[in-house]
Amino acid sequence: MNPAIELFRGIGAFMVMNSHYAHFLSSDRGVMNFFWTGVYLFFVITGFLFAKTILFKDVDVFPYAVRRFFRIYPLYLFSLIIYYLITQDHPNKPFLLIKHIFFLNTVSYSPRKALFFNAAYWSLPVEIEFYAFVPLLVYATRRLGMKFLLSLFPIFFAIKFLLALLSNPDSPVPNTAYVLAHHLPGLMPEFTIGIILYVVYEKFLYGTWPLSSWHLLLIFMLGMVVLFSLSTFFVVYGYEGINTCIAANAFYTTGCSFAYALILLPFTLFSNGKNPRSYRLFFVSGSISYGTYLFHNIFPRMTDLVGIHIM
Q1: How many Å apart are CA 173 and CA 115, to the nearest integer?
Q2: Cα separations (Å) of 98 from 29, 92, 105, 113, 140?
Q3: Residue 113: how many CA atoms within 13 Å on its side-chain side?
Q4: Would you state the pLDDT for residue 220?
Q5: Residue of 202, 201, 196, 203 whose CA lies nearest to 152
Q6: pLDDT tens-digit profile of 78-104?
Q7: Nearest 5°: phi and psi at 154?
Q8: pTM value?
Q9: What is the DSSP string of 28-62?
């Protein structure tokens, strides 16, 4: 495992946690609120990690599914039980628990249902959908070649734009396009950026494309400039600004994913092949990232339960 990937897993979890804690520090929208985009850093990392399998390997579906199940589900189920116990009673609470057990909490993408137990849970169905899609991508790549896979990428982006064009983000009852925009059909470009990142990483790593330390620095700086611009847009205009502009509604999170990929690339190249002991903290960061992502909302839930409002 590349140490930089493990480091950025932890960074992504830390970002999401801080976005959910931001209201404890200030009622005004700030950079910490923008950290909700750390979810899309996770999507990029997932695409990067599965790219080698998609591009160069075959998948034995049953062992693959078992590994994915035990990677995601046991800790998720344990966290769900805890959130169920500390969430205030509601007539639909048992029904919503069943939906969460089967990752159906975002099928209608009602925020009340999707975020009822834990705001972080909305992204897990998307990850599961991508895991299910990977064997299909592997099959298509083996049978139809790399060019077919590359031809799919612009289609993914076109679908994302079409869903944004047809969705109704301001409606209390989301339409089908809005729901799909929050599932794999609308979020495949974010995973695609991770796949492309891996291809570029391989090209640079094995010298197919010449690269110097200055190039890495420029790539990193470009990523930071893009990320700073997008965060400034969000701080100034908020979700309303994103939803009222079709281009932003379609590709704001894609832009964030692109920025994260640019920032990731120099780190993955620099840390590749180094002694893992030198990066022990990076691996610790990665090992606690999933738990941090799942459990960090326990504190806000507990404050709601006992009626404490810090701000």
Answers
A1: 15
A2: 34, 10, 9, 11, 34
A3: 20
A4: 96
A5: 196
A6: 999 999 999 988 899 999 999 999 999
A7: -65, -30
A8: 0.94
A9: S--HHHHGGGHHHHHHHHHHHHHHHHHHH----HH
Amino acid at 147: K
Query: Which residue bears the tokens 């404890």?
Result: 24
**Alpha carbon distance, N-terminus to C-terminus of the chain:** 41
Kindly list the distances between the CA atom of residue 162 and the CA atoms of 151, 186, 191, in Å, as whole numbers in the listed order.
18, 9, 18
What is the amino acid identity at position 35? F
- Token pair of 96 as six digits: 């919503």
Q: Are 132 and 64 in contact (CB under 8 A)?
A: no
- The one-letter amino acid at 43: F
Classify burial at 153, counting beta carbons within 10 Å of its beta carbon; exposed 0-12, middle 13-18, buried 19 or more. Answer: middle
Contacts for 141 with CB less than 8 Å, ≥ 6 apart? 54, 55, 148, 149
On whether the CB atoms of residues 263 and 227 are closer than 8 A, the answer is yes
Cα–Cα distance between 100 and 201 in angstroms, integer? 36
Beta carbons of 96 and 44 less than 8 angstroms apart: no
